[in-house]
Design a protein that fits this description.
The chain has 279 residues and is of the alpha+beta class. The strands form three sheets. Strands 1, 2, 3, 4, 5, 6, 7, 8, 11, 12, 14 and 17 form a twelve-stranded mixed sheet that branches. The longest helix is centred in the C-terminal third of the chain and has 9 residues. It is globular, with a radius of gyration of 18 Å. The chain starts with a strand and ends with a strand. The mean pLDDT is 97. Keywords: Hydrolase, Metal-binding. This is Fumarylacetoacetate hydrolase family protein. One of its GO terms (molecular function) is hydrolase activity.
Length: 279
């Protein structure tokens, strides 16, 4: 099942058409794309029997972030072996956690304003919570995931590295630096939810390629590690990390420039396209 945020309204995506959830459910579920995660199992039960006959064609440019206002955003650093190596770090013993502020969220096709001369790309698989999680064992971690979407952890590297201690959250939270989409896909849709290909390209040139089977901490392990410390809530978002190939890890370094097109693809989910524009 795929759900999306179409012009601010929750929809079920059926092939190339969109079914408005509030209308199709006769008001049982709100049009608010964020509200559905609080009633995720009830929504799944209804959606499995929903009549797609009233679904209508739509423009992909009208899609927004499938989870527009999560209460918490957890982002994981150094979570691919090859990315840790290119960054000059040993593999972490526990997840390296920071946040992206929600004001950075944007849709899958919006323009992104460059915040400085060292803006970098980071393709990521993004996991969304469908249940409250507290002290969840890893073997049950997938039970708490509503679905998966594509993400970019865009980063202004100069801001990120400024000061006596790194400013990870600040450097990664400029407006538009948290694009997700194009929709959320439930885990049952994947042939192997623990081995998903992902990558990104700039102006048609491949920059990153990876598979989630190379994660240091898998999605269910992240649910376990994070929920051991804090309560994860329905609709919370986890950026699970990026593979090797970031601009800061290249020699010479390479960063995004005005006019660049950044294309992000995650297997089984789809593609996002973002044009970088000057401030």
């Amino acid at each position: 099942m795929r759900i999306a945020n179409l012009r601010g309204r929750l929809v079920l995506v059926v092939e190339d058409r969109a079914l408005d959830v509030e209308t199709a459910s006769a008001g049982r579920f709100s049009a608010d794309p964020q509200a559905v995660y609080e009633r995720w199992q009830e929504f799944l039960d209804w959606a499995s029997t929903a009549d797609p006959g009233r679904a209508e064609p739509f423009e992909h440019r009208d899609l927004g972030a499938p989870v527009p206002r999560p209460s918490q955003v957890l982002a994981i650093g150094l979570n691919y072996r090859d990315h840790a190596a290119e960054s000059g770090f040993a593999l972490p013993d526990a997840p390296t956690v920071f946040t992206k502020f929600v004001s950075s969220f944007t849709g899958p096709y919006d323009d992104v304003v460059l915040a400085g001369p060292t803006v970098d790309w980071e393709v990521e698989l993004v996991a969304v919570l469908g249940r409250t999680a507290r002290r969840v064992p890893a073997e049950r971690g997938w039970d708490y995931i509503a679905g998966l979407t594509a993400g970019q952890d865009l980063s202004e590297r100069t801001v990120q590295g400024a000061g006596p201690a790194p400013q990870f959250s600040l450097g990664k939270s400029f407006p538009g630096f948290g694009p997700t989409g194009p929709w959320l896909v439930t885990p049952d849709e994947f042939a192997d939810r623990d081995d998903i290909a992902l990558g990104c390209a700039v102006n048609g040139e491949s920059m990153q390629k990876g598979r989630t089977s190379d994660l240091v901490f898998t999605v269910p392990q992240l649910v376990a590690e994070l929920s051991a410390v804090l309560e994860l809530r329905p609709g919370d978002v986890i950026f699970t990390g990026t593979p090797a190939g970031v601009g800061a890890g290249r020699n010479p370094k390479r960063f995004l420039a005005a006019g660049d097109e950044l294309v992000t693809t995650v297997e089984g989910i789809g593609t996002m396209r973002h044009r970088l524009v000057p401030a």
